[in-house]
Give the backbone structure.
Amino acid sequence: ASDWSSDVCSSDLYVFESCSFSGNCPPRTTMLSRPWRIYAKVVLIRCDLSEQVSETGFHDWNKPESHETCYYAEYACTGKGYVPERRPDYVHQLTEREADEYTREKVFGR
């Protein structure tokens, strides 16, 4: 498995910063991400997550092998959908220093 956690400029990376995730579906019925094939890298920084987001937040689509190839992380999110203590072990809670690595320059390689 590659070290996705340190690959800030990966082409498979989605970073959401200061976004609001909301909707009109029933509470706790929406996931933030799932593996495409067995790869994904999604980082949420200071996002507001509504009650529509499942307490687990992310789903592995019953592909336990994706725990080694996917990378899901959050930092300083808020809202009823942000329940870090209920996230699966494969979801990372970033430190401020780790979150600071996700700058536009690094993400877009410029």
